Amino acid sequence: MDFGLSDKVAIVTGGSRGLGRAICLHLAAEGARVAVNYYRNRELGIDLVDEADRLAATIREEHGIDALPVPGDVSKAADVVEMFQLAENAFGQIDILVNNAGTWPTAYVKDMTEEEWNSTLAINLTGPFLTCREAIRRWLGAHRTGRIVNITSQAAFHGSTTGHSHYAASKAGVVTFTVSLAREMAPHGIHVNAVAPGMMSTDMAQEALEKNEERYLQRIPLGRIGDPAEIAGVVTFLASDRASYMTGATVDVTGGMLMR
After folding, report:
1. Which is catalytic among the residues 38, 39, 167, 216?
2. Which of left, alpha, beta for 211 (phi over 0: left; psi -120 to 50: alpha)?
3. Does the active-site annotation cover 38?
4. Which residues of the chain carry a pLDDT beneath 50?
5. C-alpha–C-alpha distance, residues 209 and 68, integer Å
6. Tag placement on the chain: N or C end, fewer CB within 10 Å?
7. Could you tell me the CATH superfamily of domain 9-252?
C-alpha cells in the first residue's frame, strides 16, 4: 500500500532507538524525510547522538531518503523550538509529528520521590504538549494542515502493578490530551491520533522482560511480545492520508491486552 508520504517531512521524538527507530525507518521507507530527535544531557552523561547519526546514515543508505539527527529535551520549550527550527531549515515545513520520546522508571508510590514523579510527567506528558503546541502554532500560522501521532500505552487504561504508576498516569494524560487537541484542531484539518502499544522488545523493556517475561506473556492473548516494527506500521498509517477520517482515536496495538 502506498501511504502517500513521498516528500513529506516528519519529526520523531526519541527517534534514535527502540520504537522511535522503527517509526523513523517505516516513515523513510514510505518516502518521508525524517528529523530524528535524540536526547542529550551531558551533565548526566547521556548523549544518543551516535545512535541518531547511525540511524540517519542507515535511512540514507537503505531508502535514499534524507534524514537529520536533531537534539532536544522535549520537556524544555526552548529545546523544542530549536528542534523544529533545525528540521525546517534542513527540510522545509514539517508535515508530521510523532511524539514517541518517553521514560519508564520503576518506583512504587510508597517509595517514589517528587522528583521521580515530576520528571516522568515532564517527559511523557509535558513533552507532547510542548511539541504539539509548537507544531500547531507553525501550521496555523502558515495556514497548513498536519498530522500528529502520540504514543501512549496500554498502561493508560490498565494502570500498573509493577511500580510504574507515574508512567501510567502520564500516558493516561496523553490519551485525553490527544482527544482534546483533536477536537480543537479538527476544524483546521489537523489530525491528532494516538497509538497504545503493549510490551515490545526494546531496550526500555529489556530488564522488565528478563525478570517477568512469563508474567507479561500471560496477559497477552496473542502469546508473544510485540516487535517495534508492528507498532511502527500503525503509526505510519495514522501519519498518512489513508487515515483521513480518523482523529481523536487511540489505536490498540497490544496483542490483545486492551481489546478496546
Report:
1. 167
2. alpha
3. no
4. none
5. 32
6. N
7. NAD(P)-binding Rossmann-like Domain (3.40.50.720)
Q: For position 158, what pLDDT does the model report?
A: 95
**Among 74, 79, 82, which residue's Cα sits nearest to residue 103?**
74
Beta carbons within 8 Å of 22's beta carbon, 6+ residues apart? 228, 229, 231, 232
Rounded to 5°, the CA angle 95-100-105 comes to 165
CA–CA separation, 100 vs 87, rounded Å? Answer: 17
* Type of residue found at 224: R
Task: Extract the C-alpha cell encoding 78.
Answer: 526552548
- Listed in sequence order, the DSSP H helices in the chain are 18-29, 49-63, 77-91, 114-121, 127-141, 155-158, 165-185, 203-218, 228-238
Q: Distance (Å, rounded) from C-alpha 131 to C-alpha 257?
A: 29
User: Residue 194 belongs to what H/E stretch?
Assistant: strand 190-197
| Residue 101 DSSP code | -
DSSP state of 187: G
d(CA 122, CA 24) in angstroms, rounded, equals 23
For the chain, the structural domain boundaries read 9-252
What are 215's three cell numbers?
A: 508474567
Beta strand pairing call for 46-47 and 40-41: antiparallel
Cα(7)–Cα(180) distance, rounded to whole angstroms?
A: 29
Give the burial class of 123: count Cβ atoms within 10 A of its Cβ; 0-12 exposed, 13-18 middle, 19 or more buried.
Answer: buried
C-alpha cell at 130: 510542548
Asked if residues 204 and 14 have their Cβ atoms less than 8 Å apart, the reply is no
Tell me the pTM: 0.95
SS3 162: coil
256 - beta bridge partners?
A: none
Q: Is 118 helix (H, G, I), strand (E, B) or coil?
A: helix
